[in-house]
Give the backbone structure.
Amino acid sequence: MATPDFAMQPVPQVLAHDVAKPRTRARWIDWLTTTDHKKIGILYLVFTFGFFLIGGLEALLIRVQLATPNNNFLTPEHYNELFTLHGTTMIFLFVVPAMAGFANYFLPLMIGARDMAFPRLNALSFWLLAFGGIVFYASLLWQPPEAGWFSYTPLSNEMFTPSGGQDAWIFLIHITGISSLVGAVNFYATIVNMRAPGMGWGRLPLFGWTILIYALLLILALPVIAGAVTMLLTDRHFGTHFFDPTEGGSPVLWQHLFWFFGHPEVYIMILPGFGIISEVLPVFARKPIFGYKAIAASTAVIAFLAALVWAHHMFSVPVPTVVLGFFMLSSFLIAVPTGVKIFNWIATLWRGSIVMASPLYFAVGFIAIFVIGGITGIFLAVFPVDWQLTDTYFVVAHFHYVLMGGAVFTIFCGLYYWYPKMTGRLCSEPLAKASFWLMFIGFNLTFLVQHAAGLSGMPRRIYQYPGDAGWTLYNQISTVGSFVLGIGILLSCVNFLRSYKNGAIAGPDPWKGNTLEWFTTSPPPVNNFDEIPRVRSVEPMKDIRRQVERQSGIEHESATQPTANA
């Protein structure tokens, strides 16, 4: 297996645009008023990564509370608030908008467009997200929400949660929902209308396919949660009784509406990560992706099935057995297209000329973790098993293996893969690999033992447990693992910050990539491309390199050809 030596490449002349140019206005005003999709993508990534660190700190405080039995480090109220803030932050303020950040920056570059279809709407989508996140965390100034990130009724009704923190949660869902909906329409319009010449649907990058499906799922699911939180708001303040069983309403209605949004949301969070993996693996295996059409088709099938399985989150709700059977079987079925992706990724690596660079570490680590999360999901899809496990830490472990181990590892994979394109600099490979191993080991220490804790009966959403319950060792291991995971994440933060000024110059194409973002400079100019190349395959950069090599060979042969008078 080859080891990367990217820093040794000569610096091309195209980096001349990095030379400082005189500015006519303050740099910060440029960032506040920009409609450049690349700057908006960076704003998304920086903003959401800040919330990721905040959500991670909240998780560490939760783990400290659960490290020992009968711990009084946190009060029950503070624990519920942290639990709600952590879940809401990670889902609504980190994973979904972070994927939008990657799409904002790289989607136009990958399809050969000069910008998004609607640049001003693109800027609006980010500032709505920022406004919603700031207002949500402003609830810390009075009382944060404490009904959980899912806000089940009647707990989230005014009788049980009278504070304004719950209203801040409703506001966040509305504002971030509008942000995501605007962004989804923009992504869809960009992909459909602005592809490079020759880029038909059979040549669209796989990351583009996942963003297209991501956008369609958002357009489908967001109106449902918007309606649900509007109904909750009117129940709390305007005298309606949609979810009040004493007045003819139903708390189960909230669960149906929330999870009809919530399960597609799982795939909204993970599908762009699948796209990142599908772009990274063939680059570092030095071979084409195995089964391009199968991976693209399985993405669409997952989206269709994602809308049919929401009630497997509600197996403990009194519904007819035939309904439980339908949702059990449909949950089994959704594992098939996911398994197709896993098979194709492994086949892509099989007998490839593997380049052991840091993005590949995170990609392979994701596959290993996501397989475990998928297998435990199949267990929970069997409704008699779910009846036993639904309110235990087994579900917590499964959920984090799918989302933390799935989405977050793909985000770090994408950051290390595209960091040279965004900054023109390479990250430190030793630091990146050390960060990966700390994150991988810390993650499995944290969450693998939670399966055992759940099987031994530890309920989820508890802030204390007795010393004789037999859960102490599990929780101590989990807490130690969470801090190891946190150190690994901080090491990547140090790497990103250090490399921004001191990293080796990357050049336009340090990884020998396959897609069009590597055709332009690092970082790209405002207009992205001086000339948009014609796309002739799913790997346009390979075609361009072959063409350059062929032309160089012809010129070399012409220069060495003896003349007739010689």
